[in-house]
Amino acid sequence: MPQTFTELDGLTITETISAAMSAEGITAPTPVQQESIGAILAGKHVLMHSGTGTGKTLAYVLPLLQRLREQPGRAVIFAPGAELVMQTMRVIEAYRDPDLTVAAAIATTSHRRQKQRIVRSTRLIVGTPDRLLELFAAGKLKKVTIVVLDELEPILSSRGADYLAEVLSRPDPKRQFIVASATLGRRTQQFLDRFMADRVTAQPASGPLKSAIRHIVVPLPPSRGKEIALASFVENNRCRQAIVFAVDPRHHRHLYRYLSERGVSIDTVSRERTKAQRRRALDAFRDGKLRVLLTTDGAARGLDIPDVPWVIHYDLPRTPQEYIHRAGRTGRAGKEGSSVVLADRSMQSTLRRLERSLDLRFDVAKKT
Predict the structure, then answer these.
(1) Residue 260 pLDDT more than 80?
(2) Is the pLDDT at 110 greater than 60, yes or no?
(3) 215 and 160 in one domain?
């Protein structure tokens, strides 16, 4: 397998790309990048089925930028949430040539300002399904020849999925499809069979879920509150930084107050907060000013913070797929991490199902 990016079939490393890689400390392609970049450059439909933190975004951004640099046409990238859109935009901005026009289309941005930014000369647009489909309906996204769908299952579960299928099934222009996903659900499989039957699949043998992440359970005695267990675990294990998942945003106020009173620096990211509030919280966490970032499953999609050592599940995930996405916030970019579940006796059967479904083993925490 190629050991450097220059060895990847057809990939051109420009001065801009080289400088961006040096700034981020990237020296060699990950397995999913090795398996997918050449196929994307060749114009093939590509499925990247790999865990979070394995380099899928750069795996499609690099060849996508090169194809737009060398050929006519436009590209759109669908992402299920605003956070993932902005994370993808940050990668694009770091690696694109200055003369390539790009724009974001998300629900938290004014419709009027967004339409002014997205014109015929805009070559690459990244957005949420609702806004991108509005632009397709308004005739703003003509001559799109490459479509990327990042985390396809929630995209197909969103409003407008039928219209999305109708748009993508139009014969003119002919389109290349690229799907990047940590999990494959029923809707995703149906989409793949319909639109990408002749796809190339990049699916590395093992990912960070098994190779880089420890899976830990903290047993909760009946007499102990879960918030007490959370605070004790963070302190006793000297958790430098942790992303904590709590399903109900209404519980965030209580946890925020409880941990703050115990001297734990914390902020919250949920869809109930404004875009500016979420950005401030994420920036503070990335800068190491916060010890705990409290979030929900929906708001966490797209979080890419390379050096988070702990993920803590205050509430159990509802499905194995949710566990994969949550746990994947740690163990990224070659680092090791820990995924910790707070569980009382009533949750043991759910844990066993997770172990069987994902072929994992949860170890009992030594310090609680």
Answers:
(1) yes
(2) no
(3) no
